[in-house]
Design brief:
- By secondary structure, this protein is of the alpha/beta class.
- Helices cover 43% and strands 14% of the residues.
- The strands form 2 sheets. It has a 5-stranded parallel sheet with strand order 7-6-5-8-9.
Length: 303
């Protein structure tokens, strides 16, 4: 890997190796504990974050490196200065860039202007670090990902897109469950379908949540109103009526099915009250695994 802008940048074996590396790091058996010694990374965040920022900052520190956090106002990607100019400057100072941006094109411009690795910490198109962490969690709880049925209920957003790409690359059964107008974008879906032809994965869209979760191993949901979509709040709440994940919906799935949410969560919208603490919920394992997977990604790119 030179960069991690999309899950599609990774081969099946690279994803599996990241899972193995993250598990080794988590268990304390990793041999690359100080792989970032004498290295510094820039964290460019146009959007706020708890889990992504904290896990990257802590991960960099635990691997022996240092980070400099730069928010939207401080750096002005494409406003105060062209992205290309910023990329050339940061390239002279840092060993890598972790970028959480509004537009995926910003990531492409950063990568084109740098000789150092660029990591996508969220864009409007994908959230690969989140999805890879989630696959790590599924692997821990259920074993081999191949043929695992993962049902994503809600908006076909960046998280759903990256999960679909992971599923396609690893031979899983991925179901996107949403209203017609909230499917995963067509270009990403096609890439996932192309991967599925090589791995035997199955990808499908089902409108009805009650049908979608039958024999599911994983039920995953995310917020209905992502950052930047606040002006659509009323319309989205109306459109997603009937898509709330509840204990009753989880009960339709396999007995050992796990419930996942990347958080923050909105009770009364995409989930019913208290669902994060449901006996089948693994959301806090997901959150913990962000740290271990970020460290695996950083080690792979920067060692």
């Amino acid at each position: 890997m030179e960069n991690l802008l999309s899950v599609s940048d990774l081969t099946e074996n690279q994803i599996k190796n990241l899972i193995l590396s993250a598990r080794a790091i988590k268990s304390g058996k990793s041999t690359s504990k100080q792989v970032l010694e004498q290295k510094s990374l820039a964290l460019l965040f146009e959007k706020p974050s708890l889990r992504t920022r904290a896990s990257f900052e802590l991960g960099i520190t635990q691997l022996g490196g240092k980070s400099v956090y730069l928010n939207k106002e401080e750096i002005g990607l494409g406003t105060r200065e062209p992205v290309r100019d910023i990329a050339h400057v940061l390239d002279r100072w840092f060993d890598g860039i972790v970028a959480r941006v509004s537009s995926h094109e910003t990531l492409n411009l950063l990568a084109a202007g740098c000789s150092i690795p660029v990591i996508n910490a969220l864009s409007d198109v994908e959230h690969p670090c989140q999805a890879l962490s989630d696959i790590l969690t599924i692997n821990e709880k259920l074993g081999d990902i191949k043929n695992i049925k993962i049902v994503f209920i809600g908006d076909g957003n960046n998280v759903a897109s990256s999960l679909a790409l992971c599923a396609g690359a690893l031979g899983a059964h991925f179901v996107m469950c949403s209203p017609q107008s909230y499917k995963i974008n067509e270009s990403t879906w096609q890439i996932a379908l192309d991967q599925a032809k090589k791995t035997g994965a199955k990808l499908e869209w089902i409108k009805d949540p009650n049908i979608a979760v039958e024999k599911a191993d994983v039920i995953y949901t995310d917020v209905w109103i992502s950052m930047g979509d606040e002006n659509q709040t009323a319309q989205r709440i109306q459109d997603f009526s009937g898509y709330q994940v509840t204990p009753e919906l989880i009960g339709i799935a396999n007995d050992q099915a796990i419930f996942m949410h990347d958080m923050p969560a909105h009770e009364g919208e995409e989930i019913s009250e208290g669902l994060l603490y449901h006996p089948q919920s693994v959301v806090f394992d997901q959150a913990e695994n962000r740290l271990h997977m970020q460290k695996a990604i950083l080690s792979s790119l920067l060692k």
